Amino acid sequence: MGSNFRRIGKLAAISSKNQSCRGFSSTVNKNDTSTKSVNLFSAINQALHIALDSDPRSYVFGEDVGFGGVFRCTTGLADRFGKQRVFNTPLCEQGIVGFAIGLAAMDNRAIAEIQFADYIFPAFDQIVNEAAKFRYRSGNQFNCGGLTIRAPYGAVGHGGHYHSQSPESFFCHVPGIKVVIPRSPQQAKGLLLSSIRDPNPVVFFEPKLLYRMAVEEVPEDDYMLPLSEAEVLGEGTDITLVGWGAQLSIMEQACVEAAKEGISCELIDLKTLIPWDKETVEASVKKTGRLLISHEAPVTGGFGAEISASIVERCFTRGPALPNLIPVAWIYSRVKIEDWVRQSRLSSLWLGS
Predict the structure, then answer these.
(1) Residue 118 has what DSSP assignment?
(2) Residues in domain Transketolase-like pyrimidine-binding (predicted)?
(3) Does the annotation count 113 as an active-site position?
(4) Distance of CA 95 to CAs 101, 201, 271, Å?
(5) Partners of 294 in the β-ladder
(6) pLDDT score, position 160
(7) Which single residue of 14, 81, 184, 205 could bond 234 by disulfide (Cβ 3.0 to 4.6 Å)?
């Protein structure tokens, strides 16, 4: 699996019936700038350096960020930009986000780090009742759009129930904030810079499994990638696969194995969960007639259910397969995804929670 993670963002040969496939194509033109092979945490570090250097109103803070943080994403920032702009906070997530909201409301760029996404819940009230509603409740007179909350999320094979959660669906229920999850170093840098500069509060989840495992050619210059635009990573005709974050590498392997059996998969990275790109997914499902959504968060109340419900509403009577197949699964294993792809080819099957 490790070798596959290093291929994220690069061209992957996902073959299909009599057609070419883009695989894990890049969204950045590498001919326009110099690139360097870096892992995901280094790409995050580059983005933070650029954000602080390009805007004197930017601040980075959180638990232990002053010496680089537990994942080293903030290494060197305090030395370069000073402890007035990069500083440690008390171990109090509610206080971190509350301070960040006030800082952003004063027309600053507040980049707050929650050390693990599992510990974002003490700040839940601040995020959903303050940050998300700031603009609306003031009649657009005030806002905290300069707020970005970074948090490492997901499983790493160890860490237990306090260091392996994927809480993204909690925040997808809340109008007024955006939820962004990158799949690779190149995506992480471009999406983080877009999030920091977006006029709305953003919760930016970073797949910690990929911090060191995912390595990719990343432009060294300043660049941004659009939010709320899904990306079709591999085109296909038999089934659409949708995912985000670290799960994309697992799904890519499943697509490669399915292709050996003549199953043509269309693979889509959602990238932004709210607001998500319904149009791209809808267009794909109308072509393939089948959809599989894979994520490592809990099935019950997971964001996959929202995608399933929306696409059923839009596509139930469309596409080559009637009735349309919309299996939704909580899957971490590539083998299980392959099994579901095979079953979806052979029969009409609904998989619920």
Answers:
(1) G
(2) 38-213
(3) no
(4) 10, 17, 28
(5) 329
(6) 81
(7) 14
One of 93, 231, 235, 282 is an active-site residue; which one?
93
Rounded-to-integer distance, Cα 97 and Cα 110, Å: 9
CA–CA gap between residue 259 and residue 250 (Å, rounded): 15
Q: What is the mean pLDDT of the chain?
A: 86
3-state secondary structure of 64: coil
pLDDT at residue number 171: 97
Quote the CA–CA distance of 10 and 136 in Å, as a whole number.
Answer: 41
Q: What is the pLDDT at residue 5?
A: 43
Coil, strand or helix: which one is 58? strand
158 catalytic? Reply is no
Rg of the chain (C-alpha set): 20
Quick one: DSSP state of residue 324?
Answer: P
Structure token digits, residue 18: 């009599």
How many Cβ atoms are within 10 Å of 280's Cβ, its own excluded? 18
Q: Report helix angle 40-54 to 185-197, nearest 10.
A: 30
Residue 340 pLDDT level (bands cut at 50, 70, 90): low
Residue 20: exposed, middle, or buried by beta-carbon count in 10 A (0-12, 13-18, 19+)? exposed
Neighbours of 28 (CB within 10 A): 20
Identified catalytic residue from 163, 216, 231, 282: 163
Query: Under a CB-based contact definition with an 8 Å cutoff, are residues 47 and 189 in contact?
Result: yes
Q: Among residues 96, 192, 112, which one has the least CA distance to residue 147? A: 112
Kindly report the three-state secondary structure assignment for every residue of 119-170. Answer: HCHHHHHHHHHHHCCHHHHCCCCCCCCCEEEEEEECCCCCCHHHCCCCCHHH
User: The dihedral of CA 162, 164, 169, 171: what is its sign?
Assistant: positive
Q: What angle do CA 233, 235, 240 make, to 5 degrees?
A: 90
Give the angle 180-168-4 at the CA atoms, nearest 5°.
Answer: 65
